[in-house]
């Protein structure tokens, strides 16, 4: 089969590899759509321990069952599906406590974890455990289905903030996770949604997703938000970037006693205004991946409560993957969310 293989920093190749065979309890999927995640780009640039070459990336995808391994029941060749790509163990202390998203024994399709690498869906075919297969409703397209995973991440982050009805919220970063978070907070009743980004095209997309206000981060963000809130500050900040400017900016613009939800993993370490945060009695939440939100997100797509396809700005053949990765990593491309499909 053909696959995009990550061979090292800034080195992605479209090449022939062996087609995987499903083992007992597994299924072989024909990949129909796979999305490029920001974490894939970080790995492509050689900046992530979770992408060790050689590796076929791709954990946001949809497909069709092409072959069943032995002992697989309840599934059929031709079924349209997505996959829960977090392959947690289910028996460790974290899993038993409901935190399968941080299971130390887990593998994640398309990544490299402590338990090893698992080739992903930037290929013609991918293998997955049958127990992780989730059937697609007939009205959900393969492209929309591929974005169920990032939607689940945004859903989990939104839940951390509690009741958002009537609240004023800020979403830092109008990339895919930020845009889907805007959709989520709107659905859960936020009254005023302020999107902050440095790229005007992304701010325009944020408006389409439900932002009531947008601020270019080159402007005086703290001053503008103070004016918008009569000097009080915003109720909740969602940080889908995770760099010093947004982390400390969130502390500055949230109200006393407000909430900040960290989602973005922009940098591994940063200086943080700890004293200011304590004196404002801010509650912080760290939100990582998802646990139970995948099926919930799929249902929201199927029932029209979320429009994930509107953030897709480019659909390209898998064979163009090396060029697409290079252009996204070097910021030559203005695409926000890219889908790759097999030629």
Automatic annotation (TrEMBL):
Transmembrane segments annotated in the record for this chain: none
Alphabetical UniProt keywords: Metal-binding, NAD, Oxidoreductase, Zinc
Coiled-coil positions: none
Superkingdom, natural source: Bacteria
Domain Enoyl reductase (ER) residues, every copy: 8-340
InterPro entries with a match to the protein in the record: ADH-like_C, ADH-like_N, ADH_Zn_CS, ER, GroES-like_sf, NAD(P)-bd_dom_sf, Zn_alcohol_dh
Entry GO MF terms: oxidoreductase activity; zinc ion binding
EC number(s) given by UniProt: 1.1.1.301
PROSITE patterns: ADH_ZINC
Requisite cofactors: Zn(2+)
Top class in the EC scheme: oxidoreductase
UniProt cross-references to SMART domains, sorted A to Z: PKS_ER (SM00829)
Family: Belongs to the zinc-containing alcohol dehydrogenase family.
Name the record gives this protein: D-arabitol-phosphate dehydrogenase
Species this chain originates from: Thermovenabulum gondwanense
């Amino acid at each position: 089969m053909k696959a995009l293989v990550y061979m090292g920093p800034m080195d992605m190749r479209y090449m022939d590899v062996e087609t995987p065979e499903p083992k007992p309890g597994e299924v072989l999927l024909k990949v129909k759509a796979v999305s490029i995640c920001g974490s894939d780009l970080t790995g492509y640039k050689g900046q992530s321990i979770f992408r060790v070459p050689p590796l076929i990336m791709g954990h946001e995808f949809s497909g069709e069952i092409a072959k069943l391994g032995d002992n697989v029941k309840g599934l059929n060749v031709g079924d349209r599906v997505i996959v829960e790509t977090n392959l947690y163990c289910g028996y460790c202390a974290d899993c038993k406590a409901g935190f399968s998203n941080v299971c130390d024994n887990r593998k994640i399709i398309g990544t490299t974890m402590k338990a090893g690498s698992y080739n992903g869906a930037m290929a013609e075919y991918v293998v997955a455990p049958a127990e992780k297969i989730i059937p697609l409703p007939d009205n959900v397209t393969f492209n929309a289905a591929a974005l169920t995973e990032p939607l689940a991440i945004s859903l989990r982050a939104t839940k951390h903030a509690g009741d958002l009805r009537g609240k004023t919220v800020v979403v830092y970063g109008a990339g895919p996770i930020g845009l889907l978070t805007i959709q989520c907070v709107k659905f859960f009743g936020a009254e005023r949604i302020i999107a902050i980004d440095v790229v005007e095209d992304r701010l325009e997309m944020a408006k389409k997703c439900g932002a009531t206000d947008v601020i270019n981060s080159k402007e005086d963000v703290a001053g503008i938000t103070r004016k918008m809130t009569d000097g009080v500050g915003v109720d909740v900040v969602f940080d889908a970037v995770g760099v010093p400017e947004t982390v400390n900016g969130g502390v500055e613009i949230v109200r006393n006693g407000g909430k900040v939800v960290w989602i973005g993993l922009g940098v591994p370490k940063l200086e943080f205004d700890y004293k200011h945060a304590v004196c404002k009695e801010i509650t912080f939440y760290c939100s990582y991946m998802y646990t139970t939100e995948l099926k919930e997100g799929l249902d929201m797509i199927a029932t029209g409560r979320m429009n994930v396809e509107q953030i897709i700005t480019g659909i390209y053949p898998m064979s163009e993957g090396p060029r697409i990765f290079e252009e996204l990593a070097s910021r030559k491309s203005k695409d926000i969310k890219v889908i790759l499909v097999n030629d």
